[in-house]
Amino acid sequence: MPVSIRIATRDWDYLTPLILGEVTSPRLTVEVERVGTLIPDLANDPKYDAAEISFSRYVSAMAEGMETIVGIPCFIMRGFRHRCIIVRDDSPLERLSDLAGKRIGVTGWRDSGNTWTRAALRREGVGVEDASWFVGRLTAQHPITDRLDGFGRPGRIEAIPGERPMMELLQQNQLDAVFTPFMPDGFFAPGSAWRQLLRDFRAAERAYFADVGYVPGMHLVAVKASVAQEHPWLPGEIAQLIDQSQRLWTTKRRKYAETSPWIIEELIRAGRDLPLSWNDSGLQTNRRMIEDFAAELHVQGILAEPISADALFPFAAKERTSAA
């Protein structure tokens, strides 16, 4: 009889084949429950055996010696970050280097995506010390929470006064740019007041991929350590099922491309610009991306010391050594 687990993830459409049972395993049954926000504490959550978690927070927890969950080098959320910098439509800013000395809003200082976006800026000569950073909620509909997460520095990294929404401050020219993974209401409308900083962000992202060889990972899959210890094969099986689901979803999207008017153009360009393996799971496959991210966390002052990919994913490293 297969082992049954319940996993909490965001509503990623490429998991549809897994949810519908089109991708299966004789050893493992996975019940996917889609959630609006990441669950805060997988280790002590009574409902879930596995979950989508923040890459940044996982790295920090592992550096502090966490042993209650097992991270899998299966990056359920990936994406280039050049597109995630928005400005007013009438802004004179058009390059990453233009942000030197500017006032930049971010939705969370330690967030994995914002870490990668700052990494992209740093490649263009704009480090943390080269801009003024303000941390807060994107719009009035977003909750008020501690988004500094202990990393504030007066005069350099500060909470937005009065919890004012960043899009209001951007509209009033009190911020020059905002980092956000999800575009605000109205962004996609004709005549929008906002645009991406980089007018041709795809070209920048293609150049980035040609240089580094990966699409950055923001979230990964983790399981409770007790589950992994009882079933050592289970983390690898989850990763395999998610990879299979993504491949089947891609095949179906290419066939049923009428889900939006021009998705076929995106599918063609992605298929030609990226290797088939761009989203594959596995420690070796993702080693450079993992270690680049850990190094970036250190450079940005979020991680006290660098940490290796093997230290971050000891379960996967041990499994690979045993297989060899």
Task: Kindly describe this structure.
The longest helix has 22 residues, at 234-255. It contains 11 helices and 11 strands. Helix 1 (16-19) links the parallel strand 1 (3-9) and strand 2 (28-34). The chain has a 6-stranded mixed sheet. A 5-stranded mixed sheet has the order 2-1-3-11-4. It has 2 domains: 3-79 and 215-323, Periplasmic binding protein-like II (D-Maltodextrin-Binding Protein, domain 2, 3-Layer(aba) Sandwich), CATH 3.40.190.10; 82-212, D-Maltodextrin-Binding Protein, domain 2, CATH 3.40.190.10. The mean pLDDT is 96. With 324 residues, it is an alpha/beta fold. 34% of the residues lie in helices and 18% in strands. The radius of gyration is 20 Å and the shape is globular.
Give me the secondary-structure topology.
Layout: E1 3-9, H1 16-19, E2 28-34, E3 50-54, H2 55-63, E4 69-78, E5 85-88, E6 103-106, H3 112-123, E7 132-135, E8 157-159, H4 166-171, E9 177-179, E10 194-196, H5 201-212, E11 217-224, H6 225-230, H7 234-255, H8 263-273, H9 287-299, H10 309-312, H11 314-323
Parallel strand pairs: 1-2, 1-3, 6-7, 6-9, 7-8
Antiparallel strand pairs: 3-11, 4-11, 5-9, 5-10
